[in-house]
Prior knowledge:
With about 775 residues, the chain is of the alpha+beta class. It has 14 helices and 34 strands. The strands form 8 sheets. It has an 8-stranded mixed sheet with strand order 2-4-7-6-5-8-9-3. It has a 6-stranded antiparallel sheet with strand order 23-22-21-28-27-26. The relative contact order is 0.09. Keywords: Disulfide bond, Membrane, Signal, Sushi, Transmembrane, Transmembrane helix. It is found in: Membrane. This is Sushi domain containing 2. InterPro entries: AMOP_dom (IPR005533), C8-3_MUC4 (IPR056619), Epithelial_Barrier/Signaling (IPR051495), Somatomedin_B-like_dom_sf (IPR036024), Somatomedin_B_dom (IPR001212), Sushi/SCR/CCP_sf (IPR035976), Sushi_SCR_CCP_dom (IPR000436), VWF_type-D (IPR001846).
Amino acid sequence: MKLLLLPWALLLLVTAPSPGRWPAADAQESCSHRCGEWNELCSCHPTCFGLDSCCKDFRDFCLEILPYSGSMMGGKDFVVQHLNWFSPTDGVICRFNESVQTRGHVDSLGHVHCVSPLLYETGRIPFTLSMDNGSSFPRSGTWLAVHPSKVSQTEKLQLENETRWQYYGTAGTKGNLTLTWNTAALPTQSVTIELWGYEETGKPYSEDWTAKWSYLYALATNVSNSGFFTFTPEPAPQNYQRWEVGALRIINSEYHSGEKDVHALWSNEHALAWHLGDDFRADPVAWARTQCLAWEELEDQLPNFLEELPDCPCTLAQARSDSGRFHTDYGCDIEHGSECTYHPGAVHCVRSVQASPQYASGQQCCYTAAGTQLLTADSMGGSTPDRGHDWGAPPFRAPPRVPGLSHWLYDVISFYHCCLWAPECSRYMRRRPSSDCRSYRPPRLASAFGDPHFVTFDGANFTFNGHGEYVLLEASLTNLTVQARAQPDTTPEGMFLSVAAEDRVSIMLSSGAGLEVSIQGPFLSVTVLLPEKFLTYTQGLLGTLNDNFTDDFTLRSGQVLPPDASSQELFQFGADWAVENASSLLTYDSQLLVNNFLYGPKHDPTFRPLFPDEITPNSSQTTEVAKLCGDNHFCSFDVAATGSLSVGNATRMAYQLHQRRVQSLQSVVSCGWLAPPLNGHKDGMRYLVGSTIHFHCDTGYSLAGAEASTCQANGTWSTPTPTCQPRRSHTVLLSIIFGGLAVVALMAVVFVVLRRRKGNMAIWGSQP
């Protein structure tokens, strides 16, 4: 896998092959059926704008759309930009992924509209456009389908007091339910409100296992589009009761109820407690218990997915720093108030980025405010792994890989059955136990920031101010390549920056590698994280990952510069890692880039930068620099090079951020979960080295064994869990004591009597 990175004095993140020979600017050939291509006459590739090489009809056939993204549930109306259609048309057809078609239209202004379809996948979906009712599809573009939980609140139906909806029919929950929505998102006079149900049928993990959304029934028709609707739920008819997970949809009342792929708003998927039948309302606990037992029986027949899940990070700091393999769980995020509905006691949860290879399952890890794992063995709020990864898994479309929905069927609705609607949570937790962290190994971290400065995976650091294109990282293990383009000063302070709207871009790869580009003051900062399996497989400016910083300055030839190499020697080290044309990943989308980098040298040999040992801060700034930078030589260098304290401060902060993250990713020893004694309990839920767990017995029991156990550096507990043995009461003890004394006294009396009888028998025996 190859990535393109354009940090600091540059553009941001693109991936494209080298364009090779550039076409003439006055080319006339068409882009019909050819978007994304180059040819001899003109270009249909997005880079053609900066090169003035686009075919004249580029915008007519290579489509830009607005908006460009929406929920995978579909129903989003989008407009094709730059395509004005005033000719008669037999019909507008929009085709997604070469398989799903929706009907579009041309409005009174000649603008072409499409409606996004109901999909069973997320990501970039190619689409083509027909203006002749499907006879030909010469135009193409890309639609971005997103997970329903990431859709803006203004773009979907809101279940007011959502918890009430999902507990409706249980004890104390009845009455009216209310829906709200943004009327501007669905401009029409009247609407129809519908219920749709989701199910997955067929034999699990077989080819006939399929996912399906079904229209069930309309809650209301021809309702005023007021943005507000209240109703009293009625139990569903028998033929609809098998659907327990679903969503509400509103459409223009002019459409037929249940009509697919029309402009619509959807609610979040949710547990359909409010829709279930009379048997649920008559005794919700008994009904839910039956469902829980049925789920438990099914789980026992399915493959064990837990064995292929990765262990969790040991600490909250590790979990938030290991961004290549774990990502914030949308339902429990410390940066958004820690509203952890399903994990009480947690302040933050993360999910594994990648689904497991065979069963497409997902890991979840939750943490307390103290930064330690919250385990289901200790709390109902502990993290629970998922048979269906919440974010789905490529190639999507079929169970258990459907984003969000497979997870709801196999992991969430069963939680309602066992834990929320019935007191059977122990059954759920036995089949969804939290993973501990004994086998977790944190990733290694390398960074580039500031003017730029580099810190390698093994901790070596240097400054390299080259002008050209360079290899930050090559990893033969997975064919991972990260390249960078550095350009000289274009502003008085030496920075030129062009970034996307977000101030941080993250890339997570299936190998577990992660790459982040973020804004730090006036600079871009680049961070690369690699799992331990990349040991000995890397080279480039970010060094040789092998736990030995002394060989990080290794040239392509294998020659190793010493750790104390001079700035001039390190400049030659950087130059040696210039990109080669044949392996360039970078895009050349302007004539300047073509002339300076595609046709010019990959490393400019005439460019001589300022070296750290050749400059000192302005004498008037000496005191301020010392106060700001301290012993941070990167900070001092950037102040001296630019004359700006704010630039130096940005560099200082970037370096401190790197250091904090390295500290967060230090290995931690875990001894694993320690059970409380039977008929007793324990104090403490921290199982890392140095932690001590104290044991106590319930009333009427006495501790037999150690009162505490400490996690040792070798990963074992100092003592096993003790036992709690029944304690005898004082009355019982006194009874035993006095009873024993009575027995002894009785035995003494018997002994005396027997001795006397023996004496008498001796006397009687001497008589004649």
